Amino acid sequence: MIIDASAARRIAEQLEDSQHTRQQMKQISQQYPGMTVADSYAVQKAWVDLKVAKGHEIWGHKVGLTSRAMQMSSNIDEPDYGVLFDYMFFQDGDALPMENFIVPRVEVELAFILKKDLRGPHVTAADVYEATAYVQPALEIIDARFQQVCPETGVTRKVFDTIADNAANAGVVLGGRPVPVDSFDIRWAGCILSRNAQIEETGLAAGVMNHPANGVVWLANKLVEHDVTLKAGQVILSGSFTRPVSGQAGDIFHADYGPLGTIQCRFV
Description:
It is built from 7 helices and 13 strands. The chain is α+β, with helices and mostly antiparallel strands. The protein has a single domain, classed as Fumarylacetoacetase-like, C-terminal domain (Fumarylacetoacetate hydrolase, domain 2, Alpha-Beta Complex). The strands form 2 sheets. Strands 1, 2, 3, 5, 6, 7, 10 and 11 form an 8-stranded mixed sheet that branches. It has a 5-stranded mixed sheet with strand order 4-13-12-8-9, with no helix packed on it. The longest helix is centred in the N-terminal third of the chain and has 17 residues.
């Protein structure tokens, strides 16, 4: 690792400032060209620690980059993860204040709400089923505190930046109909995502590692390396099964999950 604890804390403070000022910052992959995924997670942890120190509560976790296509485009061979905080959560029908975001994008997910703790290293899909109170539709709002393209070099943002940026976490909208995880084959849960009545994306939950529960399995087993347990009551976003769709003030998003109900939200 080339980013020490002091540098990680400094970058975390810059990320916090970027979030509040809504001004993107230079990519750390430009500042530390030899950085690794481990460096990125060190920065993420420093930012998480900073938020906890400021009084924010951890309400869950998310898994990202679950599709093979996204992993190949990011030049990695596994998903990434981030932390969901109390201030990120919204409900169906809510207005999403643009002052909370910089360049928000919307993704379609299934949320696993836990009734029991999950801790690796040997968690299986059966364990996830047993530990899950219910599954419900969710929209994840992702955002970027780092610039997409460095204005000086023209180099694009890398996965190292996204991971350090708490895996692009910014918001979660919960809605639809909660269902028992074993009530049907959730691989076939589908969604039609519309923006301003225009269909933008469609997808099936099987796009998440062949089964959304596999995203939770991976996360529980990965986080034990950092002595982190998925806790009862937490919300776990298992991974998006559509591409992200950009949102701006005035946009109304409608996600139709068929028998699982709908979610609607708007940016204001």
